[in-house]
């Protein structure tokens, strides 16, 4: 089973790239984030095209904000929108935002997640992010072994996972509470499939649109696939599809893939194709072009 996760940063803008990408890469399960459309618009824009390719789909939309989806051609059973205890924002007791959807695909509960950004350290949205992650952890405790958490986590797991740790000092995505929240998920037995396959390589999944960050390979790894132990043991390949970040009107995120049981393209990676001229920068010499990305 080939599983992919991709923050498309507006699915309507990405349709001309998404459909050919499905045809080329042939993922069995796709987790999309930041679709930025309602359920009705998602179905109208993509329903027929997905059906013609053999995909069932489920979508949790929020109009022009957020939005997550699951596409599957290996079953889409017991669909769940959000998760128990998911807080809302700004009212924690309000309706959860369109940030989480899950279903059972070929025996594995796959979650498509768009973790809150956090915006500024110490802000209300930052505390919301931490509460959201804790509620997620609590919700998957009893089924972690047969679970995959896929999506835009808006957390840089370690200093290794960004172009320069000095550039992120004082920003979200790298703070100890955020990283501790990610570690708490991993403590359930969920493994970072990319680092399990490629422990030491330079791997990014997001590059800012501005300042030539993509061409210089000045990015960060915030799109993750965490898998419970029995699922992680089946991983044959894990890689970032950098090709999907190139060309005309790309998302600022690249898809991340995991192949279970078989690897149709071999153990390619970790980044396909690799950047040709990654910039080597002195610590602190490059500033973030804006606040840390979604």
Shape: globular
CATH architecture: 4-Layer Sandwich
- N-to-C order of helices and strands: EHEHEEEEEHEHEHEHEEE
**What amount of the residues lies in strands?**
15-25%
Number of domains: 1
CATH topology: Deoxyribonuclease I, Chain A
Compute the CA-based radius of gyration.
18 Å
CATH superfamily: Endonuclease/exonuclease/phosphatase
Number of helical segments with 4 or more residues: 6
- The CATH class, by name, is Alpha Beta
> How much helicity do the residues have?
10-25%
In angstroms, what separates the terminal alpha carbons?
Answer: 28 Å
Largest sheet: 7 strands, mixed
Number of strands: 13
Site (Transition state stabilizer): 154
Protein name: Exodeoxyribonuclease-3
Active site: 114, 152, 253
Site (Interaction with DNA substrate): 253
Core attributes:
6 helices, 7-stranded mixed beta sheet, 22% strand, alpha+beta, 22% helix, single chain, 6-stranded mixed beta sheet, 294 residues, Deoxyribonuclease I, Chain A
